[in-house]
Amino acid sequence: MIITIIYRGVVVQLVRTVASATGHLMFYVYILKSLINGRLYTGSTNNLERRLVEHNTGQSKYSRLTRPFELMHFEKYLTRSAAVKREIFLKTGKGREELKNILENNPNNLQRGRSSVG
Predict the structure, then answer these.
(1) Which residue in 59, 63, 92, 101 is deepest, having the highest Cβ count within 10 Å?
(2) Looking at domain 2-116, does it have CATH number 3.40.1440?
(3) Which long-range contacts (CB under 8 A, 24 or more apart) does 62-67 make?
(4) What is the pTM of this model?
């Protein structure tokens, strides 16, 4: 479920982090777009809601100067290692190409839901 709130004057999109049907914690790979310079930021986390707030409130060292951010895409994984592997891939040349295609093929830039069992 996606919730949009204003936090300290910044619009923040939140995604409720829920456990999988088996009760396991989910891991996420996410793509943010800076509303300042339009650049994309790729990361992974086990708590997407918390991480988005951290990015948009300047608590993230590498992204604090280019906030606020809009959530463009996220993918769910059952293991941290699968999420980190995907994050690393998306930061390669081929991964950036794939990400460009994912975002271009969705006119609203809101494609979400790629899942992997790990």
Answers:
(1) 63
(2) yes
(3) 63/32, 63/34, 66/34, 66/36, 66/37, 66/39, 66/41, 67/10, 67/34, 67/35, 67/36
(4) 0.74
Distance, in Å, from the CA atom of 60 to the CA atom of 62, rounded to the nearest integer, reads: 6
> In the structure encoding, which two tokens stand for residue 37, read together?
């310079």
Mutual angle of helices 93-104 and 80-90, in 10-degree steps: 90
Q: Is 113 helix (H, G, I), strand (E, B) or coil?
A: strand
* Preceding peptide of 107 cis, ω within 30°: no
Residues in Cβ contact with 11 at an 8 Å cutoff, skipping those fewer than 6 apart:
4, 5, 68
The pLDDT assigned to 118 comes to 43
Instruction: Determine the Cα–Cα distance for residues 18 and 46; give it in Å rounded to an integer.
Output: 10
- Residues 40-90 have pLDDT tens digits of 999 999 999 999 999 999 888 888 888 899 999 999 999 999 999 999 999
Per-domain boundaries in the chain: 2-116
Q: 8-25 pLDDT, tens per residue?
A: 455 555 555 455 555 568
